[in-house]
Amino acid sequence: MNDKQLIGKYKEQVDELRQVLTKSLSDLFQRPIMIGEEVKAHDDIEQSLSSLPLPGIALMFQSGKEANRLNHLILFPDQFVLLSYAWMVGEEPAQQVDENHLDGLREIFNQILGQTRMAIPDDNFRFHVENLQVGVAESPKDIYQGENGFYVLQGIFKLQSENENFDITHLVWSEQWTAGQIDEEAQSDEHSSAAIDNVAVEPVEFGSLGGNGRTYENNPNIEMLLDVDLEISVELDRKSILVSDLLKMGKGSIIEFNKSAGEPLDILVNGRKFAEGEVVVIDDKFGIRITQLMSPRERLKTLA
């Protein structure tokens, strides 16, 4: 497998994901988002990492399963992290990134991952994600401490929203993508189309992301709650009435609410407001489309 084949497959997968990424980010940020990208390959991961603008806000994870696992690094400009959080929660942007912003970045990733899993078939576990870390990468050693001499794909995603422009760097690598190696079988169309999906990958130990003496890894207490069932309910409105009025009601009685027709409905998780939405009909059944999400901080409270 050579660098051109890897770049070609990477671009195919970006094209497959582009519509989901654009819609997910536009919905989360409540503003139109446009995405472009540039892709290149390096045969020296140390050189590739040393060229990154570190320290920086990083999101690291592994995708795939077992032998098909790939390693990912996404590096975000501080201004994107600050603005994206402000757009989501409807507040003015802060001056400095803190733990709330990192939680917001994790929330953005999880929302996009969820939308991707619903929109794109994933028989090969391409969107199976493990070892997710969000934090500050101070140096290349925080990202990778293994061997060199294999191809690293680097994508520069150019996000544009109104008057804001951001360059977000995505690195993906496998120690099995040996630099200079050309797999003859990969010349066939069938093998080439699955080149990245079927590559054998050895597990890798990521560095620990932190910054200012703090480490932002998955909270084990939150991980323990991820399989807990939560009750979701949709609330039209609330009203207080007298017991005497309640006793007068019969079949055909009408209860008038203050909410106007067409206003969004409240979506509750464990009795707490989680989002707002509108009623839709799906195959003769009612559903609700989410139109507004609460902040990541408020959503975490629903787990309490």
UniProtKB/TrEMBL annotation:
It is a peripheral membrane protein. Residues 224-294 form the Flagellar motor switch protein FliN-like C-terminal domain. This is Flagellar motor switch protein FliN. SUPFAM superfamilies: CheC-like (SSF103039), Surface presentation of antigens (SPOA) (SSF101801). FliM is one of three proteins (FliG, FliN, FliM) that forms the rotor-mounted switch complex (C ring), located at the base of the basal body. This complex interacts with the CheY and CheZ chemotaxis proteins, in addition to contacting components of the motor that determine the direction of flagellar rotation. It comes from the Bacteria. GO terms for molecular function: cytoskeletal motor activity. It comes from Caldithrix abyssi DSM 13497. PANTHER family: FLAGELLAR MOTOR SWITCH PROTEIN FLIN (PTHR43484:SF1), PTHR43484. GO terms for cellular component: bacterial-type flagellum basal body; plasma membrane. Belongs to the FliN/MopA/SpaO family. GO terms for biological process: bacterial-type flagellum-dependent cell motility; chemotaxis. InterPro entries: CheC-like_sf, FliN, FliN-like_C, FliN/MopA/SpaO, FliN_T3SS_HrcQb, SpoA-like_sf. Pfam families: FliMN_C (PF01052). It is found in: Cell membrane. Keywords: Cell membrane, Cell projection, Chemotaxis, Cilium, Flagellar rotation, Flagellum, Membrane. Its main location: membrane.
